[in-house]
Amino acid sequence: RKEVEQDPGPFNVPEGATVAFNCTYSNSASQSFFWYRQDCRKEPKLLMSVYSSGNEDGRFTAQLNRASQYISLLIRDSKLSDSATYLCVVPGGRNFNKFYFGSGTKLNVKP
Amino acid sequence: DAEITQSPRHKITETGRQVTLACHQTWNHNNMFWYRQDLGHGLRLIHYSYGVQDTNKGEVSDGYSVSRSNTEDLPLTLESAASSQTSVYFCASSMDRNYGYTFGSGTRLTVV
């Protein structure tokens, strides 16, 4: 089983829509999680961290479900500028300092 | 401001040549990582280091090597470049597991 799995999409949504992505992970001992955003094979950039049950930052909400081992990212009131690939990241390895990346979920926000 | 820089941004090389990609960070992070990214594969870990003189193999380390002689630098060497190593390479660093990675802007390598 892969360390991290994501639905590749694409998710095609109109501006203003609410969209949610899920990500499942295999290591139940993982404590912190991250969502990254990547544009057109540029470097990934940290979007949100999730340490406990969830985190909210403006239009973005990340939630963690430890029992089912998944994290989700909810984007409300989608903007054209939200079009990107969203990567789910789960720490692992020695002392959990090595991160495993999902293959990414592509979001296209249409006018 | 602290940063992480990769050089060169673009590189074209011939099959069989040795190539070194540079990664330099001024965050004073102990942890540094090299990834490659190809269409359909996402980010795959090549090598990583948790500190000076420490290096570890990732999931796709064959044909690559790294060395860590100081905190700031983790150069990635392709011993004998192959066309299969044409890819975008990202370097990243982190303080620890609670802070996420900071990525360099990437090196686009083409092996012809």
Architecture overview:
The complex is a heterodimer of chains A (111) and B (112). Chain A has 111 residues and is mainly beta. Chain A has strands spanning 4-6, 11-14, 19-25, 33-38, 45-50, 54-57, 60-65, 70-75, 84-92, 98-101, 105-110. In chain A, the strands form two sheets. In chain A, strands 2, 4, 5, 9, 10 and 11 form a six-stranded mixed β-sheet that branches. A five-stranded antiparallel β-sheet of chain A has the order 1-3-8-7-6, with no helix packed on it. Chain B has 112 residues and is an all-beta fold. Helix content of chain B is 0%, strand content 52%. Chain B has no helices and eleven strands. Chain B has strands at residues 4-7, 10-13, 19-25, 31-38, 42-51, 54-57, 64-66, 76-78, 87-94, 102-103, 107-111. In chain B, the strands form two sheets. In chain B, strands 2, 4, 5, 6, 9, 10 and 11 form a seven-stranded mixed β-sheet that branches. A four-stranded antiparallel β-sheet of chain B has the order 1-3-8-7, with no helix packed on it.
Q: How many H/I helices of chain A?
A: 0
Q: What is the chain-wise order of helices and strands of chain B?
A: EEEEEEEEEEE
Distance between termini of chain A? Answer: 38 Å
Give start-end ranges of low-pLDDT stretches of chain B: none
Count of individual beta strands of chain B: 11
Q: Structural class from helices and strands of chain A?
A: mainly beta
The beta-strand count of chain A equals 11
How far apart are the first and last residues' alpha carbons of chain B, in Å? 37 Å
Roughly what is the average pLDDT of chain B, rounded to an integer?
94
How does the major sheet of chain B shape up?
7 strands, mixed
**Main beta sheet of chain A, described?**
6 strands, mixed
Strand content of chain B: over 45%
Radius of gyration of chain B: 13 Å
Structural class of chain B: mainly beta
User: Can you give the helix content of chain B as a percent range?
Assistant: under 10%
Count of helical segments of chain B?
0
The residue fraction in helices of chain A comes out at under 10%
Chain pair with largest interface: A-B, 25 and 24 residues
Name the overall outline of chain B.
Answer: globular
Binned strand content of chain A: over 45%
The average pLDDT value of chain A, as a whole number, equals: 91
